[in-house]
Q: What sequence folds into this?
């Protein structure tokens, strides 16, 4: 049998009794949207992140988008304002910006960490720049101290795309607690995954939390009275109940991910396979274990032939997508090289020793391009 890239069935099987009990509680309650489970999860997730507010929303894209929309309603952002983003990220980071008639300005990552390079951010700040949206890519914290410096100096909003980084920390603060606000995704494959779609906005900003709380629910604070032209993007009771079960196990799962990563980093020894660079153990929550290889596609085929599944995060950068023709002229050679070289190995909190060893052995047996 193949070593799967990720088996969500196995991940959730460990909690099946708890999940079924939580589902039964919701079914029996007769209350399915905006109830006690959501309120409890919002309290618990805010406490986990160490922030004042968590607002449950429909998915991670909406979490990011609603932060920007909230700041627009507060007068902090206007149409045409620029938001600096890493060139190498999932498309959602860009989509959240353009959906609000703001302009994504992609900059190069630091090739060592794959995270946005503060020097490039500083160089990209212009007269229309109003925000920086770093991504804690693959689960490793971006250089938030350097980015906060730049944001302070230029009075920019600092908004974390924390969709991959539940549980990453610098020892003092967790992902989600570094900027003005952060967006999380609870897509099933994320470190904290629901059994469907979900997301959250976390922030210490009382006013932003109030705006997002209204915006996610038709722009309404009082039923049938509408302050904003909002949307319907709520975290439902069933998903909130599933997430409460899984949040209680998150730290233990992240610890297990770190053990798998440690085994890979100790065991994979190959001159053509570059291992991920880690700044400090606690800063990486290992949503993905991403190696780099000049013959990436050959490595992927080789692993497949040895029964090891792998994926590419991501094959085409946003500025090369048909959806972003306006950015086709962007010069981002580091970003483009990264998209050619990255390969994600199997990673999950349920990987057994045998599967880990098979991945390591298959990598070490790579013969390079034929
Ligand atoms: C998953 C992800 C999102 C979007 O989350 P969804 O819940 O799928 O909408 C945003 N940004 C990054 C970096 C992601 O990995």
A:
């Amino acid at each position: 049998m193949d070593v799967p890239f990720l088996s969500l069935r196995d991940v959730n099987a460990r909690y099946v009794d708890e999940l079924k009990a939580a589902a039964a509680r919701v079914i029996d309650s007769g209350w399915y949207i905006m109830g006690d489970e959501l309120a409890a999860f919002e309290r618990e997730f805010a406490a986990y992140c160490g922030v004042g507010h968590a607002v449950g929303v429909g998915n991670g894209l909406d979490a990011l988008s609603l932060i920007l929309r909230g700041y627009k309603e507060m007068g902090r952002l206007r149409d045409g304002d620029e938001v600096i983003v890493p060139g190498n990220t999932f498309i959602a980071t860009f989509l959240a910006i353009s959906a609000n008639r703001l302009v994504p300005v992609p900059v190069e990552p630091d090739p060592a960490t794959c995270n946005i390079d503060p020097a490039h951010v500083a160089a990209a700040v212009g007269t229309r720049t109003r925000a920086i949206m770093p991504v804690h890519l693959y689960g490793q914290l971006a250089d938030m101290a350097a980015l906060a410096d730049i944001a302070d100096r230029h009075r920019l909003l600092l908004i974390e795309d924390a969709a991959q980084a539940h549980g990453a920390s610098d020892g003092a603060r967790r992902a989600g607690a570094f900027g003005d606000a952060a967006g999380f995704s609870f897509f099933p494959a994320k470190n904290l995954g629901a059994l469907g779609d979900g997301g959250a906005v976390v922030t210490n900003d009382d006013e932003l939390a109030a705006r997002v709380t209204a915006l996610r629910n038709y722009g309404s604070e009082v039923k049938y009275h509408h302050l904003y032209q909002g949307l319907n993007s709520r975290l439902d009771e069933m998903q909130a109940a599933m997430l409460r079960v899984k949040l209680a196990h998150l730290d233990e799962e992240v610890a297990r991910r770190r053990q798998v990563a440690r085994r890979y980093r100790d065991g994979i020894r190959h001159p053509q396979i570059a291992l991920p660079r880690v700044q400090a153990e606690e800063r990486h929550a290992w949503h993905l274990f991403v190696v780099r290889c000049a013959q990436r596609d050959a490595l992927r085929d080789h692993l497949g032939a040895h029964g090891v599944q792998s994926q590419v995060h991501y094959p085409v950068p946003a500025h090369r997508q048909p959806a972003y023709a306006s950015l086709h002229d962007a010069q981002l050679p580091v970003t483009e090289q990264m998209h050619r070289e990255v390969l994600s190995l199997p990673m999950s909190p349920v990987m057994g020793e045998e599967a880990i060893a098979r991945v390591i052995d298959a990598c070490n047996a790579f013969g390079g391009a034929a």
Remarks:
- The chain has 13 helices and eleven strands.
